[in-house]
Amino acid sequence: PRPQAKPVPGSSHSESSTMRQRMKDKLKAARSEMGLPTAEEAYNFFTFDFDPEPDEETRKGQKRRTRPEGENEEGEDGGDDDEEKEEEDKEEEEELFLIDQSADDFLVFKRAEYMGYQRRLQSENELLFTPSFLTVPASSKVPENMKPRYLEEEGLYVGERPPMSLTNQNILENRILKQEQGRKWFGDDGRIMALPDPIKESSTRPPLFHIEDDLDPALQTVYRKALVSKHASQYISVGGETNGDYQLDVDVSGLIFSHHPLFSQEHVLGSRLVQLYDQHLSRQHRNLTEHLTTKLNGLRNTIGNMLEVHGGQRLTPVMQQRISEYKQEVRNTRRLRDLEQEKDRTLLKGIVKIWKEIKALRDFQRFTNTPYKLYLRREEVERASDVREYEAEIQAEVDELLDEMEEDYQRKVTEYRRQQEEWKVWRRKQRAKNKKKKKTQSQLDDNEDDEDNDDDDRTDGEAEPGPPKPKPPEEPDMEGVEKQVSEKASRIRRKPGEPILVPELTASGPITPNEQCPRGEFARREDVAKRSIFIKVLYNDKEVSRTDNRSLNSDFRVHFGQIFNLKIVNWPESIKLQVFEVLGLSTTLLADVFVPVPESSILTGSAPSEELVFSSNLRVMFDHEAVGSDVPFSFEVDGSNRQTLLTSGKLSCSVSWAVGEDDVPLAPPTTQPNGLKQLDAIASIGASGLNDMKKLGEWATESRLDPNDPNNADIMQLLKVASSGEVTAPDYFRLEQLQEEFNFVSEEDLEQSRRFRLLRLRNQEVAEFRNYKFVPAMEREVTDKVFEVRSLREIVDTKGHLDAHRALVAKHLHKIRESIINRFLIAKHHFIMSDLVQEEQVPTIGILGLNLFKLAEPKRPLKPQRKERKKVTAQNLSDGDIRLLLNIIRAYDIPVRKPSVKYDTRSSSHVLNTYISGYERVRPFVEVSFQRSVLQTTTADGPNPCWNEDLQLPFSAPNGDYSTANLQSMKDEIFINIFDEVQYELGGDRGKEVHTRLEKHWLGSVKIPFSTIYFQSRIDGTFKVDTPPVLLGYSKERSLASDGGYDAVRSLTEGAFITLFITIEPQLVPGETIREKVSSAWISFESQESEGLLLASEVFERDAAVHFPDRPCLTTVININGKTVFITRYLRPLNPPQELLDAFPNSPQEATDLIARYVSLIPSLPDSVSFAGVCDLWSTCDQFLTLLAGDEEEHAVLLCNYFLSMGKKAWLIIGTAIPEGPTTYVLTYEQNRYLIWNPSSGQYYGQYDTFCPLQTVGCLVSADNVWLNTQAYTSPLRIRFDVTKAKLWKPFFSRAFPNPGLSSVQCITLHIILHLPFPKISLTCRIEKILKEKIMEWRPRNPTRWNRYCTSTLRHFLPKLELSRGRDVADEHRLELQSLLGDYRISGFPLHLPFSEVRPIVEAVYSTGVHNVEASNVEFALAVHVHAYPNNVLSVWVYLASLIRMR
Amino acid sequence: MTANSPSVFLLMINGQIEGANFPEYDDLYCKYCFVYGHDWAPTSGLEEGISQITSKGRDSPHRLVWNFPLEITFKSTNPLGWPQIVVSVYGPDTFGNDVVRGYGATHIPITPGQYVPLIFSSTPLSTPPLIKDLLSRHTRTIPMFVPESTSRLQKFTSWLLGRRPEFTDPKVVAQGEGREVTRVSSQGFVTLSFNIVTKDMKRLGYDTTATETTHTHTHPVAAGFGPGNQTLSM
């Protein structure tokens, strides 16, 4: 609520408010009388001092204060009464004041412009609403004709309303009533509907800040002392109660060496014997052979029983299935049994062999070292039954094998049949096919016989891959089987009747006492006795205990029998036992033995003793009998069959958790990280197990997983799936296994879909699709047409090129361009700060001073200076915002119509514009066309017309994209054509009416590319109009010296000129060139120049840019491979084609002209447009001549090089010209004057030529240096070209930085192709044909007749034109023409173009508008001439004329 | 566009720029514009707008309220380049120069749905609304930032001259490209709310509706930044 804004007085601000109210009332009263207040009233109003009446106010205030709250309405009434009283008082006062009226006579009072306030009030009243405080009458709150109904009175419960001040409520009610349907907010009782107070009395959140005592005991904070954990993180974390009394019992019982360096040979054999015997014992214990034999017999019996029970009856499929399963089982079991039997047999044989060796050794050395003794116990068997069993066994096996083979054979046979069937079918088909073929053949050759047919068949069959003819399976070899079985049996089994041998090894044999041994053996035994062994116990790599030393015995068994109790605190990570050998004082570590940490369930007492194998690769040699370790030795006398043994042995020990006093295992709980690991099935077999289903399966069977345990459900499921073969684990490993799943669509889909292709092309910023709008949502909506543009560009149309060579060139250029564009695209995506953020530069002292100076300068200077227009960044623009402004001012030397004597005498009446006066000899007007919009000026008179007209052309960017990049790459051109308006009278002989026809005759044109205007922001100057060398019916008027001095300058050049001013409104900010960006982003182009040179050139260019921002300066350029090359490398004298030099042996001037012309005839192909006006590629001269296409630079370099070889002084000028913009010209110095050559037109200008298109000279380049223009002016008219003056030209290479002797990139001599690779006649004919077709195409409504006579005449002129290079032939050949075609009115001209493609020629012809002649009796003539210069440079002449018969 | 097989889908946005929270500045106004991809075109509504100047109220010393409506409909064929709204806030500095106070951008919510207004209340309600309802999907609070001057000297001069660094185009903040060259400092927050309606999205195969779509609101509704002291219940 804002009481001060209310017109109604509020209780607190009553003073001022009442006063205002009174004023208002007064005003209102006055206005109601006469509409406006009188001057006097107005004066009173402003001067009257409204003194507040203090007594009144206090009285009223008191009154207010004493009033009870509920009586507001009455109070207001009372207030009204008071006001009335006050008004009366005031009127009295006013009368008093009226006495002093005399001032009125001396002063003139004008009405103050005060009404504005009223109006504002009114308008504000429309917008603002100030709700009143007054209580709304109940009647307006309830629906009409209804009385308020009070629910409370009716006995219904009404909640307590939220407290709200009455004023606020009134305001709210007023506000609501103002709204539409405001009444619905009111209840039946006429009050605003309201819920009971939503605010809770008590807070729902427990109070946080209380005094300590009040805090709920449950919430009381209890402080405990910080506990220092006994175990760090790696330790066993303990619960609160136990203090981690864990104990590991390490029982080291002893060790046995299976090899020791001190072993004698007998020991070696003995230990081997022991090993084999152990093996034998364990096998005996398991008795697998017996077990398997029993199983086999059992299976055989079962099969036999099953077959017996069912007898000869047919077996059910279930039975058959079962039998085959049994058979399979039998086969497996038999195989296993055979294996076991064989092992048993070999083991027995081995034991016997070793024992024999020991015996032999003992005999040989005549003493015994080892106590081993082997007994072989014979168990006699009953021979007959044994034989029987043996035979029966063999027979059974043979039967089974035969059975199996038979089965196998059957299967093969059925397979064979099936294959044969297939093969037959295929063969039949093949035959039918061949027959068909034959039939078609036989129409030609009927008497082919069947054999031939067959032969063909065969060859065809061979030719086409078909199923091979199957071979019938071989019959099983019955006899062989029996033989095999018996052989096998004799190999692996005891022979029938042979006694069973049972070996028994005892260690009870006597050992030869020491004194009876030879010396070597004695020494060995001595050595053994000296040695002792002990074992260290390491827990978590810390030594905790060690055993006593035990001496080594002759049997190499050491017994310790010690138990170590380890009270542990740390979690056990490793338990290691180290075996040490002591010899005298030195101890050597023999081996480390790692003991696994026991599970917590393994307790002392129940723990089995483990035998842990250890070995050491220590090399030990002795000079006595001992074999040593890692030393080869042999049992044989001759030393053959050497073997090497390493120290090894078995340590028997056990590690277990101790049991406490009260039978509590002193083991940590299993819920430790390590324990967890063991529970996790996958982790326990390692992560690799995941990929290896087989391993997982093995592990699962080994560990006897409970398949019913829900914990194992996952694994079981996995195994089930894996074993069923549905999921096959791949053999390879993929880093991104799921990549394919995450692919959006498959590769093929991506390739095929047109829509995706479009999207991808756009994303790659391919030129045609860069800003493609609305890629359709559906595949079907993307038409193939979209891609046609691209494919057109991609596939260089060889048909369009008349010359295969040029097609190749175009292809090559296209490739280069593509790669360069890609590079720029990358560069374009690099941003620098100024691209994104606009920031004011820190003002330097100079700028600050200048600004201060500006404050003092006059506001409206007498000599106003042109202000820079505001530049507009192009991004917020849209179509229609930009216009192209052209101011066409004047033209000079327009060709004039030639007065024709013939016409005058014979048919003067036909030509309205007679040439008598000599005044109206030409009526030129200018037509400007840009982006398909054409505007023209009014028609002026005379050869030097002045139009001074503004033309506005609309401009629209392609695709509506006004980004800088897009504008830069616009290729549109502005065509400015000058026409002559000719009026002819038509058939006005008979009647009085005179029909006239207007015809426009093309006189010349100027082309200005849009990019030039965009970069230069305005173009202002006089341009040479491209006029044809001969204009039929027109002549160039040589102006006489009537114009005075100006003409003297002009006479240096010839041709027509037009003065123009072109600009874009509003001015667009040309984008920063990518080259700068590229250098600033340090994505420099590769270069073979030295670092120092590149740095120096960068500094040089930057200096130039800072000090002379408007002077183009180039020191390095980019060659065709995209590498940076120093510019002087391009200049080197190159010999021009000899043919050209020979043409004018006497006149060097003519030869120079010819060479300039030759260079200019090489087609121009601006690369700047495609590279967004940014980067020129400089090709060397030979590349240029091979490609036959290039920019101004290439033309300039070639021309300069030719000039250099001709002995001229020549430089390159890097500067700007109109209309090209930044460009390259050539400067020569001859006969004490400087000449400026435009290399792309072949024209030359004197230094002081006014119409020289070169506007700015930035720098000069010679073969060995670059000079920057440091003079005050840049225009060639005002500068001096003497580069030796250090004041005027700043050299790049100076004494401080001398030229390092840069070699040229140009070839020494240019390869010149003299002969044309194609006939020029055919080219001539083709161009002529195409042009004729085109002209007819452009005239769809009218018939196009060709005047053959005229054409052939024109054809004769063209070679002459070429010879004279378009000069000084106009008169004679027109005369010639006129004499030939006297009856026709002829208008026409030859066009001259360098040849690259047909399309530019067609366009040039079209732009002249010759085809627009609409006279019914018009005839046309068209002649083409192609002149070939060396190196395939072609000059094309097109002579175009329209003829109208005069009578 | 036939009813059976649409080739475009429509996205209708209405909502408002509710206000901002710029603790240090006052008398701010904001501009908005939309940035969208090549396959999008607005069919109706205003693409750009500029709000009134708002001063801070005495009641809420940190909150500037614009309640500036947004209403625009886009049509599109491709969700690529989903429209983003770019908001930039301007206001006078100490010397009265109009300077930028913040840039921010956010994507238009992709799920259709309505804006659930926030309730600002200084006292707890009898039935506290669920957090889920308060943090409605279609309310966005965008943090705002301005580019920093490159040096201290620059900073000083820009402050003195009232020419703070600005983005060449506010739309820069909707792109990721080239941002690495800028340094910005954060400024404040702007709150936006959206109501989104889409048409034919599903038909073209784009399903943007969330799994839980039902919002049941039993809680009082007060529009925008209502004054805090009057919690009216209806």
UniProtKB/TrEMBL annotation, chain A:
C2 domain segment(s): 866-1023
Coiled-coil stretches noted in the UniProt entry, renumbered to this chain: 387-422
GO biological process annotation, one example: non-motile cilium assembly
Residue spans of biased composition, Acidic residues class: 71-97, 445-463
Cellular component annotations (GO), alphabetically ordered: ciliary transition zone
Gene3D superfamilies: C2 domain
InterPro entries named among the record's database cross-references: C2_dom, C2_domain_sf, CC2D2AN-C2, CEP76_C, CEPT76/DRC7_peptidase-like_dom, DUF5523, Tectonic-like_complex_comp
Basic and acidic residues composition-biased segments: 22-31, 480-490
Database matches in SMART domains: C2
The keyword Coiled coil appears for this protein: yes
Biased composition (Polar residues): 11-20
Biased composition (Basic residues): 429-440
Keyword terms, alphabetized: Coiled coil
Region (Disordered): 1-97, 429-522
Protein name per the record: C2 domain-containing protein
Protein's organism: Esox lucius (Northern pike)
Species classification: Eukaryota, Metazoa, Chordata, Craniata, Vertebrata
From TrEMBL, chain B:
Cellular localisation: Cytoplasm, Cytoskeleton, Cilium basal body
Xref: PROSITE patterns: C2_B9
Entry GO terms, CC: MKS complex
Region annotated Disordered, chain positions: 213-234
Pfam families registered for this protein in UniProt: B9-C2
UniProt main location, coarse: cytoplasm
InterPro entries: C2_B9-type_dom
Keywords of the record: Cell projection, Cilium biogenesis/degradation, Cytoplasm, Cytoskeleton
Entry's Gene Ontology BP terms: cilium assembly
Coiled coil: none
Quaternary state and interactors: Part of the tectonic-like complex (also named B9 complex).
Function as written in the Swiss-Prot or TrEMBL entry: Component of the tectonic-like complex, a complex localized at the transition zone of primary cilia and acting as a barrier that prevents diffusion of transmembrane proteins between the cilia and plasma membranes. Required for ciliogenesis and sonic hedgehog/SHH signaling.
Family listed: Belongs to the B9D family.
Name the record gives this protein: B9 domain-containing protein 1
Organism: Esox lucius
Gene designation: B9D1
